[in-house]
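Protocol step 4 of 5: obtain the predicted structure for the target chain.
Materials: sequence only (see below). No template structures provided, no constraints applied. The aim of this step is simply to have a reference model before the mutagenesis design in step 5. Sequence pasted as it appears in the construct record:
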Amino acid sequence: MSLVALEPRSDAFVQQALERHQRRREEQGIPTLTVLVGRSGHAMTLLRRWLEPRRRLLCTVVAEVEVEVVRAWVETLVRERNVRADAADFLGACVGLAPGELRTRLEGRTTYERDVVLQEFLPLAPDGDATAVCKVLLQLSTGHAGGLLFSAVLAACNGEPARVLAALHTLVPAGTAPALLLTGVEPTWFARAARTAARLCDAVPLLPLALNTERPAVDSFLGSSETQAHAMVREGLIGLEAPSPVELRRRLEAHGVRHADTLSDSLSGLAEDGVSEELLAQFAKAARGREAAASNPAEADGARSEAERFLRMMLDEFPDTHGLFELNKRAKFRIHNRPVEVDFLSDLLRVAIEIDGYYHFRGPEAYRRDRRKDLELQLHGYLVLRFLADDVVARWREIRDTLRQVVSRRRDLARVPPPLGEDADGGG
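Step 4 output (structure tokens):
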């Protein structure tokens, strides 16, 4: 059955729909899949806005294979929570200990001493995946490589990723686990992702779980043979508004940008990605800074800062780059015993991004300093990208496409991500 009608909905309507979906999960225990049909940046922004007052994170993944989706969710979870402490508290509650008592008993113990304590309590705990995962988490040493952690909990659940998701979701306090968003545009991707999402919804009905794609992928999927995944997709559909480049230009002018007509290519790129109002406001600040710097070079540093803030927000909104880059990150080496700070650094992909403003071209020494920095980054395995602050505004679509190409290529080269909780060079 093909999709007949899907009205674009206002942001306020989407927020209300997200709330309704969560009430179904929490109050009725109904596995509910949210399907946001529209641009990925807009979908991510709306979900984060809904999650923010709940103090919950959003794990965004472009994979559709179940094990990779769950691996990404586990990575997000262990970055933000002490899952060993959660496991100790859960196991302690199961065997009737006071809150925090088992955690206290295990703190500072050697591996052997922890095993002795656990041998006393594990036989008293109920059988099941949650207890098995508790055992794995609590028997691992504190500095244990996270990649092996995931492998160990996966093995404890007989290699079934959905059981890993359910077990870890059970261990953490209610309402604290990251929400999950799968995003992609290809019809074949969406068909696989919908089936993965349906299985994960069944495994953990309380978990906020969403798909994001565009209408052709949804129509193609709903035109195929009916399954439970089809029913869940159809029931969870929410259309997103998609402002045109002309509408974005009007909004830029309302933000005080005088020459928005010169930014048509960048506005087309932003419209393609479904820019949020917050991101558009920052783009307007960067555009105003660019205009000010054009007439007064003294404003160039401020213009660069605004362009950098825009790029930071954009990198965070892109599904392809979300969570990969850190702002003003220090590299793990020094030049002449001085720390090396990079505008945007991804240790995972070994990519460094530098934003060059007017001051980068004021003299030969500044040029030499930048080249020395580039060389050292390259010698340490980083691909260095340099963009003009002016181009971040005026040629955004070109920069966006460059970043997507580089990130895709570096992911292919990396093949396997570094272990959970470790940096790409193996540091703790």
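Step 4 remarks: The radius of gyration is 24 Å. The mean pLDDT is 88.
Proceed to step 5.
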